[in-house]
Design brief:
β2 and β3 form a beta hairpin. This protein has a five-stranded mixed sheet with strand order 1-2-3-4-5, with helices on both faces. The chain has helices at residues 16-29, 40-48, 100-114, 129-137, 153-160; strands at residues 7-10, 55-61, 64-76, 81-91, 120-122. It has five helices and five strands. The chain has one domain: 3-Layer(aba) Sandwich (Aminopeptidase), CATH 3.40.630.30.
Length: 163
């Protein structure tokens, strides 16, 4: 095990302001701030309500929050087993280069193995070479033959209206 100068903790409801701040910081980094509509109230319901949709871990350098990861259980029909889908991983610029991003990946890989999951997956913006480098160094492979598709907003509602 590598000695590290940070720790990773499971997020608690009291961390909602911090989680929302990380989400907004990530969106700003990705130049997608205008897409953030999450609030502490929506996050409270989604992360800590009766049926949590995702989990969050927070990395601390000393007492300073340095980064976070949001993830949830997925499922592979081919494996016949659950998997871990990493929705977001973000490290504040002041803490980059210290192994915190890799530490978050190691932590999540450990959870996946401990839970008997068959794989861990995530998406990364193709221009984010810093993140891609961290992921490649960890042994991740790009799934170039797959293209992510998404339905949101009006398109989602219009398709659902065909019920």
């Amino acid at each position: 095990m590598i000695e590290r100068s940070f720790r990773i903790e499971e997020a608690r409801e009291r961390d909602l302001p911090l989680i929302l701040r990380f989400i907004k910081d990530l969106a700003a980094y990705e130049t997608l701030s205008e897409h953030v509509v999450a609030t502490e109230a929506t996050l409270r319901q989604s992360l800590f309500g009766d049926s949590p949709a995702a989990e969050v871990v927070i990395a601390y350098a000393g007492d300073e929050p340095a980064g976070f990861a949001v993830f949830f259980q997925s499922f592979s029909t081919f494996l016949g087993r659950p998997g871990l889908h990493l929705e977001d991983l973000f490290v504040l610029p002041a803490f980059r280069g210290r192994g915190i991003g890799r530490g978050l990946l190691i932590h999540l890989a450990g959870l996946a193995v401990d839970r008997g999951y068959g794989r861990m997956e995530w998406s990364v913006l193709d221009w984010n070479e810093l993140a891609i480098g961290v992921y490649r160094k960890a042994g991740a492979q790009a799934m170039d033959e797959w293209t992510v598709h998404r339905l949101t907003g009006d398109a989602l509602r219009q398709l659902a209206a065909e019920r």
